[in-house]
Design a protein that fits this description.
By secondary structure, this protein is of the alpha+beta class. The chain has a single domain, classed as 3-Layer(aba) Sandwich (Aminopeptidase), CATH 3.40.630. The chain is built from 6 helices and 8 strands, in the order E-E-H-H-H-H-E-E-E-H-E-H-E-E. Strands 1-2-3-4-5-6-8-7 form an 8-stranded mixed sheet. A hairpin with a 3-residue loop joins strand 1 and strand 2. Helix 1 crosses helix 3. It is globular.
Length: 172
């Protein structure tokens, strides 16, 4: 487990299956995560079972985000994906559920995961892709030091409108 003052990052457990099932099948999240089909509980259960495999094997690691306040609440999840140990980089994605947004939890989580990426995985950089209309995520990643280094114009089609995807990087 990785801890800070207000949150704990922990591995997904079988008790998280229903929570992850709901989050992964929320169509509002699909737009952000480039998902186009629902996940079954079976798929999520298998993911959790296989999550114990080494990050070097799966090229991904996911943490559940818990508050340290009483009662403890699971408020989101954070992933490092496309883990590339040769070039010392990984993508990063974070989800905080609506009622816990804009309270500093995402910022604190990113600080913890950056420390983990640098000091445990020996990464040189993290990157993320953010839709141009996701202002809250853009502000969050810029606040913590990510730089916009690219724009993928007309990248995603949503409601018959093209949306650009922005590419952000942070050297650790």
């Amino acid at each position: 487990m990785l801890k800070s003052k207000n949150i704990t990052l922990r591995a997904p457990e079988p008790s998280d299956i229903d929570l992850l099932y709901n989050w992964e099948n929320d169509t509002d999240v699909w737009r952000i995560s480039n998902t186009i089909a629902p996940y079954s509980k079976f798929t999520i259960e298998n993911y959790i079972i296989n999550n114990s495999q080494d990050v070097f094997t799966t090229q991904q690691v996911r943490f559940m985000i818990d508050t340290n306040n009483h009662p403890i609440a699971t408020i989101g999840t954070i992933d490092l994906f496309d883990f590339d140990p040769l070039n010392k980089r990984a993508g990063i994605g974070i989800l905080i559920i609506k009622q816990y947004r804009e309270k500093g939890y995402a910022f604190e989580t990113l600080n913890i995961i950056e420390n983990y990426a640098k000091n445990f995985l020996n990464l040189h950089q993290l990157y993320c892709n953010i839709l141009e209309n996701n202002i809250a995520s853009i502000k969050l990643f810029e606040k913590i030091g990510y730089l916009k280094t690219g724009v993928k114009k007309d990248w995603l089609l949503h409601d018959d409108k093209w949306i650009a995807e922005l590419f952000f990087q942070k050297i650790l």
